[in-house]
Every structure is written in C-alpha cells, then in structure tokens.
Specification:
globular; mainly alpha; about 190 residues; 7 helices; about 0% strand
Length: about 190
C-alpha cells in the first residue's frame, strides 16, 4: 500500500523535474545541454510512470472507476490530455520552427479531450457528485477550469501571432492542469 505522504513527495518531485526541464529548454543556448534535457525527460517520464502505477496499485488498478459509468472519473481523459500538452510544450521549446505544427496538434488535442472531460460532468449522478465533493475536489475544479480558460486564451493568442502572450498563458495552462492532475490522485 502506498502512503499519501509518498505520493505527495513523488508528485512534488515530478513537478520540480518538469519545471527544471522547462527552464533548461527556455534558457539553453542553441544545440547545447542536449544530454541534460534528455536526462530531465527520462527522469520525468519515469517518475510519472511510478506515480500513475502507484495510484493504480493503491486503487486496485482501475483506469475507470468501477463504481461509476462516467469516463470523467478516472485517468482515461485527463491523463492523455496532460501528456499531450506536455509533449507539445517540450517539442516547441526544443525547436520551435521545426515542431510548432506538432505543438498545435498536441495542444489542440489536449484542449478537445479536456472539453469532452468537462462535458461528461453533466452526466454524473448526484451520488457521484456528493462522493467527490470537498476541498481537494474544489481545488481540482478551480485548477482545471483555470487551465482550460488559459489554454483557450493561449490558442487564440497563438493563432493571432502573439507568441509571448501565448507562451505565458500556455504556462498557466500547464500549471493548472498539472495541479489538477496531482490533486486528482488524492480524490
């Protein structure tokens, strides 16, 4: 059984590694620090795998909650959206001219998956809604909603050529969705 304290420590470490990766990609000189970037990517991917596996083990290896028929409850839509946005961000920071189109595909796909995830909230039963109420869930909702709003703003800024505003709001989207995901592990 994995303790909540261990999940908190691993989650905090994953966020620190992801921030270090983003900072390394932002402040590197061209064609330098490739080894460090790959080390951060491997560490981050490995740690996220451990966190998800630990969560699955502690919850009985359920991608979708067996007590619910909703795809909103579980990792089936939120995790792929988060992974897609993270991959798109890493690619565009690694080489913007080469991967900007792929960033658009990945980030756009994550926005679509998140919108579908939010639409599925309408179909939750009153019992499911009450079961997932509380402070952690309220923070999960606020972070996810903030991430969705800033993600839409980032899309609009990017489509209009406002790169700096698109980047800034994109970072808020990443922060909001990562926070919502990590809090979702404790729901």
């Amino acid at each position: 059984m994995i303790t909540p304290e261990l999940q908190i420590i691993l989650s905090f470490a994953a966020v620190v590694i992801f921030i270090a990766l983003i900072l390394t990609l932002n402040f590197r000189k061209q064609d330098q620090m490739k080894v460090l970037i790959w080390i951060w990517i491997i560490l981050f991917g490995s740690l996220m795998t451990v966190i998800v596996v630990f969560d699955m083990i502690s919850n009985g290896i359920e991608i979708i909650d067996s007590a619910s028929d909703s795809w909103h409850i579980g990792l089936i839509l939120g995790l792929p959206a988060l992974i897609s946005l993270s991959i798109g961000t890493i690619l565009v920071l690694y080489n913007e001219p080469k991967y900007v189109l792929w960033h658009g595909y990945f980030a756009g796909g994550s926005l679509i998956a998140t919108i579908i995830n939010i639409i599925l909230l309408v179909f939750l039963t009153p019992t499911e809604i009450i079961a997932y109420s509380g402070m952690i869930h309220a923070l999960h909702i606020m972070l996810g909603g903030t991430g969705l709003m800033t993600g839409c703003a980032s899309f609009l800024f990017g489509a209009s050529g406002q790169r700096n505003l698109a980047r800034m709001t994109g970072y808020f989207t990443l922060a909001g969705w990562w926070g919502a995901f990590l809090l979702g592990l404790f729901l």
